[in-house]
Amino acid sequence: MSRKQVGLTLAAVVVLAALVFFLPRLFTRHADLRTRLASALNLPKERAADFFINLPPAASRYPGTILATEQLFILNPADANDPDLHTGDSFQLTANDEVAGNALGSLGVPWLNEAASSKQEVGLELEVSDGKILEMDVPALKKKLLASQEAQSAANKGTDPIVITRSYVGKITYVLKRKGSDQGSLWQKAPKSNQDSEHFRIDASRTQEGEIRVEMLDPVIFAFEASSAHFILTHLGVEPTDVNLTPIRPHTQTVSSTSPAPAKPGTNWTLVTIASGHYPKLVTLRQDWNADSARLVDSALSQYGPVATMDLISTEQQPLTEQGVKGFVAQVTSAVQANHSKFLVAYYVGHSMTWPSGDIALILGSATEIPRNLSTRSPELLDRSVGSNIGDLARLANALDANLETLPQGFLPLRELYAELTQAHVPFALIVDGCLRMDEFERMRSELGIVSDKGLNVFFFAGSNGDPGSALSRLGDLQEHVADSQPYLHSTNLVLLAAKPGTYAMSRPNPDNTWSEVGPLAARLTNLYRASRFDADRPTLGDLIGRITDFNGVGEISATGSISWSDAAQLKQLTQTVPYPGS
Questions:
Q1: Is 0.70 topped by the overall pTM?
Q2: In this structure, are residues 355 and 361 in contact, taking their beta carbons and an 8 Å threshold?
Q3: Alpha carbon of residue 305 to chain centroid
Q4: Helix or strand run (H / E) with residue 433
Q5: Quick check: 496 and 566 in contact, CB under 8 A?
Q6: Strand intervals (E) in 101-240
Q7: Side-by-side strand order, sheet with 343-349
Q8: H helices within 405-467, ranges in order?
Q9: Measured distance CA(196)–CA(202) in Å, rounded
Q10: What's the pLDDT band for 450 if we cut at 50, 70, 90?
Q11: CA 513, 519, 525, 531 torsion: positive or negative?
């Protein structure tokens, strides 16, 4: 072989090696989810820009759902049972995309969070199987918009509503692939984990081969298309007669949150969130979603521009303790003084229980057992309270005893957390997402003929005198005075509890995804904020907090809901000068 032939052969080998190395990267470099979806549907590549990616899956993304503003707040939801909904073509796809890492990290499994962020060690693919197109015809979409008072209200205030026109649903599987021959701790943790839930399954059977699969058990809407709706009037009346729909793209309507508005002079305030969800000695109490509750509250209230935000979130490695909570609050009080805050808002989420003394105890991670059969201090009260002076309810506890009683390890009296916050020497609001079971109160409620199912979810009247109105009025009196022995609950610093006496604080669906839950006050506060975000008369910070209070001595009388005995006038006055979000 001549020298020239050898040179040509070597050149050919180099070119071939280059092609082998670069061509796969050339064609997979743009394998993002939008591009792969367009390809799977045989659409022009320009159409990829029309898709909104819905991972992690937000709720109510079916065709016909009406939304508002760049943050896509829900005005009128639609669901899979809508009769105007029909199914289009089927498809499947595989994609490499950063959004897959964000979605994987939202599942709440620590080592998966680590994997999602370890791009140098882990390759991540997203597989969609049993894909379906969900559609709604234009006439049906227009009919829904014309029937929506919320959509028209938004339009009247200068915000054209948004309607989802087409959704893409499928079963999602995340495939983690080890890069190179690394045998690091991540791949050792996977086979040992027991993190399956009712929503996903982890297959670590191929860990030795460098592959882990995380399969979502239920189909989810992972992408959708949407249009902006402009109402048209063809007469001199006030009701619109038609709607123009204009397709929109994600780059003009993003889902990212608005940056907090800077605090104006004289309106400095501090936001504090505390979440207790891990209990090493009481594993059945574990609630990973408590951290999500705190994050939701932080996200919503941060829009009102606090000068500082501070959080204490329990983890499996660091559960909350009395010393830890008090030390954290001491840091808060120092920060409040240093940043010249005029007031602070503190949110706590976690299990709680009530002592016969009237003490409300927050259950921390240092608790070792749940006390049972606690003695009742006022046995004669049950025979006297319902038919006698309502003031006798104060004898549920001796006020002095209530403030001196020492609770077991891991049970922090709410009055002590309140007392620690007073050391900041500024007014405050303390929002508690926890239960308020009270044995004596529950027995008195039954004496009135108001009984419940086992889960305290539904109450009904079963009294012998046939007068539910009178029983409900007496229930209001009980609710008003049951906390008379706890002076801090009646102060000018707002204390807001998620559950009325004798009830559970029932979890609510997480506004940000389709598979987890959060505390009722976190969900309600977030939904109220988002629903009012586009209103011209959007609420002040104090009004927003006030709206999640069901009973404050003059409000609705019912067995369930939130409650406060505090005087909220001071908080409302202080928050009048806090800037509105986006102002």
A1: no
A2: yes
A3: 20
A4: strand 428-433
A5: yes
A6: 122-136, 162-178, 200-203, 211-216, 220-232
A7: 308-313, 269-275, 343-349, 428-433, 494-497
A8: 414-422, 439-447
A9: 6
A10: low
A11: positive
- The pLDDT tens digits for 328-343 are 999 999 999 888 899 9
By DSSP bridging, strand 122-136 and strand 85-95 are: antiparallel
Please tell me the distance from the alpha carbon of residue 156 to that of residue 404, in angstroms, as a whole number: 57
Residue 215 backbone phi and psi in degrees, to 5 = -105, 120
Distance CA 114, CA 125 (A): 16
Report, as an integer, the average pLDDT of 42-68.
90
Separation between Cα atoms, residue 436 and residue 561, nearest integer Å: 11
Burial of 18 from C-beta contacts in 10 A (0-12 / 13-18 / 19+): exposed
The span from the CA of 267 to the CA of 426, in Å, is 13
Which residue type does 182 have?
D
Q: Which stretch of 130-144, 240-254, 554-568 has the lowest confidence by average pLDDT?
A: 554-568
Token reading at 257: 């949150």
Closest CA to 421 of 521, 507, 335: 335
CA distance 421 to 428: 8
176 or 13, higher pLDDT? 176
- Give the residue-averaged pLDDT of 222-231: 93
Which residue did the predictor score with more confidence, 441 or 160? 160
Distances (CA, A) of 8 to 4, 23, 554: 6, 22, 93
Average pLDDT over residues 340-350: 94
Alpha carbons 138 and 135: distance in angstroms, whole number: 9
- Mean pLDDT on 485-496: 87
Domains and CATH numbers, the chain: 27-248 (no CATH), 269-373+398-437+486-577 (3.40.50.1460)
DSSP per-residue codes, 183-209? --HHHHHHHH-----SSEEEE-TTGGG
Q: For CA atoms 440, 446, 451, 454, give the dihedral sign.
A: positive
> Is residue 124 a contact partner of residue 104, using CB atoms and an 8 Å limit?
yes
d(CA 553, CA 55): 43
Q: What local confidence, expressed as pLDDT, does residue 496 receive?
A: 92
Nearest one of 205, 210, 208 to 193, comparing CA atoms: 205
Distances (CA, A) of 12 to 19, 24, 501: 10, 19, 82
How far the first Cα of the chain sits from its last, in Å, is: 79
CA dist., res. 363 & res. 235, Å (int):
62
Buried b (16+ CB within 10 A) or exposed e, 393-409: bbbbbbeeebbebebee
Give, as one character, the DSSP assignment of residue 164.
Answer: E
Task: Give the model's confidence band at 500: pLDDT under 50 very low, under 70 low, under 90 confident, else very high.
Answer: confident
Q: Specify which of 98-107, 440-449, 545-554 reaches the highest per-range mean pLDDT.
A: 98-107
Token pair belonging to 567: 């005087």
CA pair distance 302, 261, nearest whole angstrom = 8
Instruction: Check whether 193 has a pLDDT greater than 70.
Output: no
Cβ(415)–Cβ(403) below 8 Å: yes
User: 271: helix, coil or strand?
Assistant: strand
